[in-house]
Amino acid sequence: MPNDEGTAGDMDPSQLDLARAQFAMTSIYHFLFVPVTIGTAVLVAVLHTQWYRTRLPEYRRLTRFFGGLLLLSVAVGVVTGLVQEFQFGMDWSAYSKFVGDVFGAPLAMEGLAAFFLESTFLGVWVFGWKVLPRGVHLASAWAVALGTCLSALFIIAANSWMQNPVGYTTDPQTGAPVLSSIGDVFGNPVFLPAYAHVIVAALLYASTVMLAVSVWHLRRGTEVSMFHRSAKLAVWVLLVTSILQVQVGGVLGQVLTKVQPMKIAAMEAQWETCQPCSFSVLQIGGWTPDDPPTKIIEIPYLLSILATGDPQGKVVGMNELQQQYAAQYPQNGDIDYWPDVRIQYAAMRVMAYLGGIAMLVALWGIFLLWRRRLDDAHLFHRVAAWAVLMPFFIGTAGWVLTETGRQPWIVQGLMLTRDGLSTSVGAGQVLVSLLVFLLLYAVIGIIALVLMLRHVRSGPDPETPDDADDDAPRVRVPELTY
Amino acid sequence: MDLQILWFAVVAVFWTGFFVLEGFDFGVGALHRLVGRDETERRVVVNSIGPLWDGNEVWLIVAGAAMFAAFPAWYATWFSALYLALVLVLVALIVRGVSFEFRGKVDSSRWRGTWSTTLTVGSVLAPLLIGVGLGDLLAGLPIDEAGDFTGTFWNLLTPYGLLLGLTLLALCLLHGATFLGLKTDGDVRARALARAAGLRWLALVLVLVAAGWTWALSGRSVLSTLLLVVAVLGAVGAAFVVGRDGRRFALTAVTIGASVAAVFAGLYPHVLVSSTDPAYSLTIASTASGDYALTVITWVAVVLFPLVLLYQGWTAYVFRARVTARPAAPSASETV
């Protein structure tokens, strides 16, 4: 049994901390680039489609311009994704052995269905400008977008299983989960809302980036008519996604109230069971069972509505859940089943409040579009340019909420995080790799950021006479792109 | 049982395909500075693999994911045993991957020189280290009764593993130089073929020694013997046969593919040999996932894998033309 105290007792606790820090660091970093890639791949395919339909050179230039940003984002996303896949085996070999029968399948599907599609057609798209017929070239842009969306689908299916394991039976000898229904894994109630949450978030990231880049140029009066087009697209996408995300997040929250009540109670710092429950907008303290909170602002009934959809809904508190789990899992010994409440409470509020501000920015943009003042609204230009930082905080907070909120479990109810570590790896090795990746990621991140800013500042390439000749016969030799 | 063997073969096919495909772009990355003398020539060299390398690297990702799904205990034990070596592999693949993208972005010879260096170093280190790791599967690592690795980093440097790493590196270089012979023209092509001419003897010697050693370590099954013979014949052919670029490239592809496949065929029915006690070796049966999980991924692979081969083959066909310096447009320093 992996939950035996014996295995846990032998383990150096600092290996646990270091391996968790490494996974958190590499995942958060990876997810700075992934949503930009997914969302931008879709928006670039939209721009490419516009060019295909209208043949307006401005759309081609926008497509290539934002495509350049996409490529930088993909480069960092792909190479850091490799670390994510290897890390399961390297740092979490006990976990990988225990859950591989179930957890490995979606990862293999991701490789076969998504990565091949995305990376092959990205090469085709980048190098295909003068080589492919226009329709095929457009199709390759959509194949890239589809590949990125599918990749998230399988990863979220795997992650949803860690939040709410379903579709398995237990091996009588090892106690390990054995896949019994792949339909149940993809029919996991957590999966669909979580996937929608990620895809909508990706479009929110990309539209914020596109808006920031566009208003930066509008403010300087460069290529106004062209950047008006991309700003308009971005504002509409931001409006739709920021509103939709509230709904999707709400559905996900209500599912989690059922399958991970501790996570929901912790993000609200709700120690005692309540009915009806008020939402704490701001409070000080309340992070441990014997730390009475000072609530500064509260909204009656709101927590009941958010968690259950009913103003009179009941939210079970952490103290009651603790007793329940202690009785349910005696083999784990005397441990706390609640995650770090302070982190959960803060992450939830960062996500929700910044999401609200994103919506306001979108509404402001829509208002300016309606009044035909978007192109010279200098204050909006300044605000929307800085708003590009928001989605990165929102998304990071969202993942912290999801993953830290599952602790102390690595798979909810099945395996504790402390039992998932690699047995043959020491804390020293993990520390070395953590430092190596930190350094490497910092250098690459800074360079990618500087290159992105340079790309943004230099603006779209001018239209060359060669470009204008759409119907020229296709050449066999691609341009020197790299 | 049948599905277990099928998936062992699938894992072997992904590793083999990875070396056949990414092998030439490792070689091109490692040689691009020597083959291209000025910046335009180097860009020609790098762009010859431009549309292909990322898709090639997915074979590695899928090889890992297929192991995770079909043989979780193999994946977990091997990857955690290789810990520090894999950190190096990841660093090599990361700096190599971003080098392609970063290199042309700033118009300065120092900048490009830096990313040329990282591209070269990454492209050399990755096949070398992965080769050592593959060799360790057959040479054996200290694995205890519970199936856990009990050694240190130094246990990974098995003599056979080091030989296999060097052999695969030499084959990648030869494969890459031959690929450039096929995909470029003029001075670049001439220099690439000159490199290939020197490398093929080194490759032949290493393949001969590695094949003998593999045969000695392996179960000497018909299949592994056959694959080793194919690898040796391929290396001999690459050394002696003069002919069209396509034929030479096919020969290096066969050599590198058969060399990797022979290691897996030699492992069968083991997946990771224990040097502590042969009885502790991990086997196909002891590490495989359940029948239902294997059935599910089999269906997925049956539907998707032919599709992948189809569109990757189509990509190679679309970009079949030789890359030349000619179309380097004024906007050349910008991507997309």
Plain-language structure description:
The complex is a heterodimer of chains A (482) and B (336). Chain A is mainly alpha-helical and 482 residues long. In chain A, 69% of the residues lie in helices and 5% in strands. Chain A has a two-stranded antiparallel ribbon. Chain A has a two-stranded antiparallel ribbon with strand order 3-4. In chain A, strands 5-6 form a two-stranded antiparallel sheet. In chain A, helix 2 (13-54) runs antiparallel to helix 5 and helix 5 crosses helix 7 (191-220). Chain B is mainly alpha-helical. Helix content of chain B is 76%, strand content 1%. Chain B has helices spanning 2-35, 39-48, 53-70, 72-81, 83-103, 109-139, 159-183, 186-217, 222-240, 245-267, 284-287, 291-318; strands at 270-272, 282-283. In chain B, strands 1-2 form a two-stranded antiparallel sheet. In chain B, helix 3 crosses helix 4 and helix 7 packs antiparallel against helix 8 (186-217). Chain B is globular. The model of chain B is unreliable at 327-336 (pLDDT under 50). At the A-B interface, helix 3, helix 4 and helix 15 of A face helix 2, helix 3, helix 4, helix 5 and helix 12 of B.
